TrEMBL record:
<dbReference type="InterPro" id="IPR013078">
    <property type="entry name" value="His_Pase_superF_clade-1"/>
</dbReference>
<dbReference type="Pfam" id="PF00293">
    <property type="entry name" value="NUDIX"/>
</dbReference>
<dbReference type="GO" id="GO:0006754">
    <property type="term" value="P:ATP biosynthetic process"/>
</dbReference>
<keyword id="KW-0378">Hydrolase</keyword>
<dbReference type="GO" id="GO:0006167">
    <property type="term" value="P:AMP biosynthetic process"/>
</dbReference>
<dbReference type="InterPro" id="IPR029033">
    <property type="entry name" value="His_PPase_superfam"/>
</dbReference>
<dbReference type="InterPro" id="IPR051325">
    <property type="entry name" value="Nudix_hydrolase_domain"/>
</dbReference>
<dbReference type="Pfam" id="PF00300">
    <property type="entry name" value="His_Phos_1"/>
</dbReference>
<feature type="domain" description="Nudix hydrolase">
    <location>
        <begin position="4"/>
        <end position="131"/>
    </location>
</feature>
<protein>
    <submittedName>
        <fullName>8-oxo-dGTP diphosphatase</fullName>
    </submittedName>
</protein>
<dbReference type="InterPro" id="IPR000086">
    <property type="entry name" value="NUDIX_hydrolase_dom"/>
</dbReference>
<dbReference type="InterPro" id="IPR015797">
    <property type="entry name" value="NUDIX_hydrolase-like_dom_sf"/>
</dbReference>
<dbReference type="GO" id="GO:0004081">
    <property type="term" value="F:bis(5'-nucleosyl)-tetraphosphatase (asymmetrical) activity"/>
</dbReference>
């Protein structure tokens, strides 16, 4: 029997100081090591939320996650395996005050950080971050395409279809989604007005004090009447260049994802992944994060991840 792998998440916090890139490292006195802030996955939490939470708890930094970095897997000192998922993370605010697990945080240039790292397996994430910076693909914003959570089946609902509600499992998933949408820096919600979409984004909206914008073009009925509207909402979000979630329905998502794939020409893997989703569909309550650079006509997808 294979031992279960402990899932964890963390990030490489970064900022620019006087035009120079710096990354934040933490020192843990118990292990006397220098590494990236990270921690174990909590119940009812997705890994992106874990990463942002751990950075705030360990390094007293509020961050927005950007593009994913290489995953690290290693044997823990007391045995067993740990898999740590990492993201590049732009620092939004330094909060001050460190918890007992960390007694010092240091900002360093990537070159100096590489010299200070205790573990060889932490170097891979730093090397990837440096490569993204060199290409101008580090400072990204998130455009999220979200399929509504699990709703009552059509055959079990006798009212108007736009009023068909989520089932309890769907409401639970919607609550879980909120932390990860916040972690990716989303601060704008555009949604189908159908109840199953409105209820999917409601916990996130309430948590962040946001007011969703409901657009008929993202509904199934609106899409059937005007099929080009959904794609236009994707293009409008790209033009804004601001962290946005677009919540819609299975039959509508293909058009939205193909529109997004058109902006992924610089990354063949992201383009292929988005087109695959457009063809094969997304799980209910699932979402894709397109990490974008630029805005308007120059906005492009540099990578994408599916949740």
């Amino acid at each position: 029997m294979t031992d279960q792998i402990v899932q964890a998440a963390g990030a490489l916090p970064w900022r620019r100081r006087k035009g120079k890139l710096e990354v934040a490292m933490v020192h843990r006195p118990h292990y006397d090591d220098w590494s990236w802030p990270k921690g174990k996955l909590d119940p009812d939490e997705l890994l992106p939320e874990t990463a942002a939470r751990e950075v705030q708890e360990e390094a007293a930094l509020r961050v927005h996650l950007g593009r994913p970095l290489p995953t690290s897997e290693y044997t823990m000192p007391k045995g067993g395996r740990k898999r740590v998922h990492y993201w590049a993370a732009r620092v939004e605010k330094e909060l001050g005050g460190l918890e007992h697990e960390v007694d010092e945080i240091v900002w360093a240039t990537p070159e100096k950080a590489a010299q200070r790292l205790t573990y060889a397996h932490d170097a891979e994430q730093l090397e990837a971050l440096i490569a993204h910076e060199a290409r101008g693909h580090l400072d990204t914003w998130s455009l999220v395409i979200l399929r509504h959570s699990l709703a009552l089946p059509r055959r079990g609902w006798h009212g108007p279809d736009p009023e068909r509600p989520l089932v309890p499992e769907g409401f639970d998933r919607s609550t879980v989604l909120a932390g990860s949408l916040a972690a990716f820096g989303v601060d704008r919600i555009v949604s189908s007005p159908s109840a199953r979409c409105a209820d999917t984004v409601a916990p996130f909206a309430a948590e962040q004090g946001l007011r969703p914008r409901f657009k008929a073009g993202l509904s199934e009925e609106g899409f059937a009447e005007k099929p080009k509207k959904a794609a236009k909402h994707v293009l409008k979000a790209a033009a804004r260049g601001r962290g946005t979630v677009l919540c819609s329905h299975g039959p509508v998502l293909g058009s939205m994802l193909r529109t997004l794939a058109d902006r992924a020409a610089s990354d063949a893997a992201a383009e292929a992944e988005l087109l695959h989703l457009a063809e094969n569909g997304m799980d209910k309550g699932g979402f894709v994060v397109a990490h974008m650079i630029g805005r308007g006509e120059t906005a492009q997808v540099v990578t994408a991840e599916i949740w």
